[in-house]
Amino acid sequence: MILVVFWLLCLHKPLFKDPTATVVVSQEGKLLGARIASDGQWRFPAVDSVPYRFKSCILEFEDAYFYSHPGFNPVAMSKALWSNLTTNNRHGGSTLTQQVVRLSRKNQKRTYLEKIIETFMATRVEAGYSKAEILNFYASNAPFGGNVVGLESACWRYFGIPSSELSWGQAAALAVLPNAPSLVFPGKNESIFKAKRDRLLQKLKEENYIDETTYELAVAEDLPGKPRELPDHTPHFTERMAREQSGNYVNSTIQFNLQRRINHITSEAYYRLDQNQIHNLAVLILDVNSREVLSYVGNAPTTAQHANYVDIITRQRSTGSTLKPFLFASLLSAGELLPNSLVADVPTSINGYNPQNFDRSYHGAVPASEALAQSLNVPAVNLLREYGLKRFYNNLYQLNFKSIDKSADYYGLSLILGGAESNLWQLTNAYAGMAATLNFFNSTSSEYPDHAFDEPVYLKKETNRVTSKNQNPELFDAGAIYQTLKTLREVNRPEGSENWEFFSDAQPLAWKTGTSYGFKDAWAVGVTGDYAIGVWVGNADGEGRPGITGIQAAAPILFEVLDVLPDSDWFEMPYDELVEAEICPQSGNLAGLFCPVSIQEWIPKKGTRTEACKFHQQVFLNQEGDQRVTASCYPLGKMLSKSWFSLPPVWEYYYAPLHPEYKPLPEFAPGCFRESEKLMEFIYPKRGETILLPKDFDGEQEVVLRVAHRNPDTKIYWYLDGVYISTTTNFHELSLELSSGIYKLLVTDSEGNSIEQQVVIDKAS
Prior knowledge:
By secondary structure, this protein is α+β, with helices and mostly antiparallel strands. Among the domains are: about 1-220, Penicillin binding protein transpeptidase fold (Orthogonal Bundle), CATH 1.10.3810; about 680-765, Immunoglobulin-like. It is built from 21 helices and 28 strands. The strands form ten sheets. Strands 7-6-16-15-14 form a five-stranded antiparallel β-sheet, with helices on both faces. Strands 22-28-27-24-25 form a five-stranded mixed β-sheet, with no helix packed on it.
């Protein structure tokens, strides 16, 4: 009874507890890379089945009666015992089951007592496991020379192929190795190794496993030699899996052929960029709808000196302008902006913060869609201020930007221009989430997905988590997303860019670039109906270079990647979230009472809440049409009524030179009352703005004062604290040397119109 209990309990479970390597394969099952086990052995996770050729070879070589014995072979053991007692040759006579027991017991010293223990335990193994499982135990844990353990790792280390592709010659060579692993070392015992393999092949021929031709081809094959390097198509992704899925067989979502093509593209791009001392880049491709990772290039094939080991995809970097589309979509979805509404692009100062456009120029007024397409900074800051910093910050939280984890006030309005840090993983996923939301809306009965901005998935067993969520959008409505992506189809090239006609022939892509302050990070992110592509270019150590811009460095790679992806259709129009409205083509707003013409445009439903055009006004002119008049100074019957497009003075100051078709309002006829018209406006400084001097600065600071006037030909007289200081004509700008203090600035034009405000100059705290 005690013996039975001991027999039942003699096996520990699991039978093998050795650490295994992390093995990463593509969604097609091809090896992408592997990382060695923690004990320094190349031991792949256990195989599910043993290939036919190796199984045939190992059974013929080691245990021909495997399927008929109870765990030990009495005949073989008797022969081995007789040989050991009567000759100097040593034979084991062990079955594969006994060898599995010996491997699980860490190859105890070979004694007769140990043999009895192995035999006893082998019968228990046979009772507890199937023959297929026992064979898998052996194939997964047998030694194959050096630190190579298990069939699968041996196949890759010696032949560079999976076990399923073994030839008869290769299978026979591996079958004889566990019996004498030292035979594998190149230049040593090769003749013995070959003789063993060839005898096994001869036996296979005699047993009709192979024919004569196959036998001759097999014996002519080379023996395994020095272990090969394993494939490493996704080094940074494999390292990530080694941390997150240590010791596991990782069946990833990465597409093998696509990954190889992207590797080639990034290698070529790296050699180009390296000429300008730009050493690092990263590329991520996601399936928009399933959010599966299809390709993962964590860094360029650079050197250790330039941090080739750093996985850039997960590293935090300044976002540049890449968050602007989310602000645009937020405003559209909230019904606070129309796609082509004019927004201010004039010198702006907000609590000492002075945003600048990339080319340091101003447009005066620009359609919101054009401001986004051209990635203008000043309009973006003004729109963020109007929408609300904390409100937008909360939207980013919902978009799953986990790295933007400080308070909204910490980032301030610079948040929209790269004041916060994120990574390619989060950024590409957020763009994919917008596209997925729109696709889901169009493919259902106008429903919205749940968890559209959840993390991407990279394990094949994980499924798409997008589910129906009634009629309520998670963040942006489908109309706002469609208008945003439509805008992003426009190439956001700055002035001076050349040869961008090349990109217009590519398949439709909604894309955005970004460049961080100091030319340290270049971004390009784009989405089609099926794919999201993210590209980052720069130096891992943060060194800036003049060529590190989204347009110059990252965008070309984005379009090269797009070229190798299957064509995607453009997004369908979400009619259920759009309405047709009368739009003023000049202002981009809803048509107002005085808009001379209007056009029909599709806008997000909530866009009907926006205000009507305020830039068209009714003016009354004299009969010649060259002067404005009022009823107090001109006969009512002779007045001409006309609709006139007029911008605020500061907007007009920058807008008019860029738009020859723009006509400023005519002057009033002499003696006519101007009513409450605003003729002049301070460009700098703005009302309530404090001009800050450096903390340790003593003395006077040069301050440039600017004024915009509707009549560019008029003279303006400048007074500071009641004292006349200068006169300007046409270009109304004045430079003064001022020290800390509070001044009263008054300007008057030649017709007696005046404006005044305080100028406060103080030292930074």
